[in-house]
């Protein structure tokens, strides 16, 4: 974890910090249950900002490598569930224990508690299934991909393009009227709220480039010709902006949004490596006549956004 960071290799510092911690865990240098330095301590030790360490810790926590316990610190998770520290399963068990104890005090038997809890869970599951959620974004690649990515617990999310919202037909208006919740990105929050008014609750999520995607792109030699193939200029702009934020702007990236098969084939043949929008890797690989690296550029909602969405959906149960 204390391995010196390389500042001019194109790989973001937080990615290097994360990879160093992962390496320590996989090699056994860091043991399950071991406490890590605080964000401040590690940032001072490595000579980076605290935000850099915080991002690395958050990503590792989302991946189930670390667990953060309020008031105690950050620890290496036990991958075999024999960890001595609290984790999500432990916390849920404690909640159930409290509910069970209160149920017994109210005069219910354990069997009655199990029956009531099971029926209540089934009711909640049915309610979740009936919840109508709409995800609004400005480009087809992201709106379809993230509508699938954000689904959980049986909730179905209907994708809707921002342009479709602006020119809303009866179909789009009907979808919005039935929606219990509308999701968009922070970039479009104000515009979406203006378009739909105050009739529906709007939740904004933050979409970040997937860590693995950035690492793959960072490994492309700078002298290589890199082609970006996607359906919209908007998505291309988001990818190029993400590369700039990751300090990978020295890569020379050419953009191709034309859907014509022959022009796509010709463009693929002129590039050394290819970046493609989600779901198009196999399609583009079929055009490759030589060995070319094809990378899907994937954005994902951050952990805080997913937790916020879960909380908003839970709140619908109480109304």
TrEMBL record:
HTH gntR-type domain span: 11-79
InterPro entries, sorted: Tscrpt_reg_HTH_GntR, WH-like_DNA-bd_sf, WH_DNA-bd_sf
Highest taxon above the source species: Bacteria
Record's keyword annotation contains Ligase: no
Database matches in CDD domains: WHTH_GntR
Gene3D superfamilies reported for this sequence: Winged helix-like DNA-binding domain superfamily/Winged helix DNA-binding domain
Gene Ontology MF terms: DNA binding; DNA-binding transcription factor activity
Keyword field: DNA-binding, Transcription, Transcription regulation
Designated name of the protein: GntR family transcriptional regulator
Organism: Ferroacidibacillus organovorans
């Amino acid at each position: 974890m204390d391995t010196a960071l390389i500042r001019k290799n194109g790989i973001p510092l937080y990615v290097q910090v994360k990879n160093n911690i992962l390496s320590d865990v996989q090699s056994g240098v860091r043991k399950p249950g071991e406490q890590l330095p605080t964000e401040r301590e590690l940032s001072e030790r490595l000579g980076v900002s605290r935000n850099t360490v915080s991002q690395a810790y958050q990503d590792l926590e989302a991946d189930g490598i670390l667990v953060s316990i309020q008031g105690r610190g950050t620890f290496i998770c036990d991958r075999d569930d024999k960890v001595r520290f609290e984790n999500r399963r432990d916390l849920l068990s404690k909640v159930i224990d409290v509910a069970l104890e209160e149920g017994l005090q109210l005069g219910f038997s354990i069997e009655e508690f199990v029956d009531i809890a099971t029926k209540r869970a089934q009711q909640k599951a049915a309610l979740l299934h009936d919840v109508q959620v709409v995800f609004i974004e400005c480009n087809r690649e992201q709106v379809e991909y993230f509508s699938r990515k954000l689904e959980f617990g049986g909730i179905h999310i209907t994708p809707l393009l921002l342009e479709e919202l602006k020119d809303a037909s009866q179909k789009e208006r009907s979808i919005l009227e039935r929606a219990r919740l509308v999701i968009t990105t922070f970039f479009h929050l104000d515009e979406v709220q203006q378009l739909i008014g105050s009739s529906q609750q709007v939740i904004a999520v933050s979409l970040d480039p997937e860590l693995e995607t950035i690492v793959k792109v960072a490994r492309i030699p700078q002298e290589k010709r890199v082609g970006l193939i996607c359906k919209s200029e908007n998505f291309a702009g988001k990818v190029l902006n993400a590369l700039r934020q990751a300090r990978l702007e020295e890569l020379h990236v050419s953009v191709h949004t034309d859907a014509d098969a022959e022009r796509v084939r010709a463009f693929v043949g002129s590039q050394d490596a290819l970046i493609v929008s989600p779901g198009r890797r196999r399609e583009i690989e079929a055009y490759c006549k030589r060995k070319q690296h094809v990378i899907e550029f994937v954005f994902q909602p951050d952990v805080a956004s997913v937790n916020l969405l879960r909380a908003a959906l839970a709140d619908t149960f109480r109304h």
